[in-house]
Amino acid sequence: MSAFQLDHLSMPARDPEGLARWYAQNFALQADGRRVRGPGVLIAFQPGEPVKRAPELHIGFRVQGMQVLNELAGKFGKPIKNGEEFNSFQIFDPEDNCLEIYCKSNG
Asked: Per-residue pLDDT tens for 67-84?
């Protein structure tokens, strides 16, 4: 087992508090000022210009299975791309950060 793990992500945003609220509302997370958190998730939004480098730079959110993936894909009106290892879809948050929502293909 590795001695370290990814603990949080800090990202620039034009509206840090508003973006934290958007993530909370859309992904059942808790907004706390400029931060959004939930089980295994901590994103801190800092004032600044978003880094628009999709698709090579994106945030990946893994969900528990196809039922959740289908629900979220329907919510955002996106088709699911079925892959050998993962099924996924991509969306953009209000500040054009790319998000990949995915689950294991057998999940």
From this structure: 999 999 999 999 999 999
What's this model's pTM, rounded to 2 decimal places? 0.89
The gap between the terminal CA atoms of the chain, to the nearest Å, is: 24
Neighbours of 77 (CB within 10 A): 8
Mean pLDDT over residues 13-28, rounded? 97
Number of other residues whose CB lies within 10 A of the CB of residue 15: 14
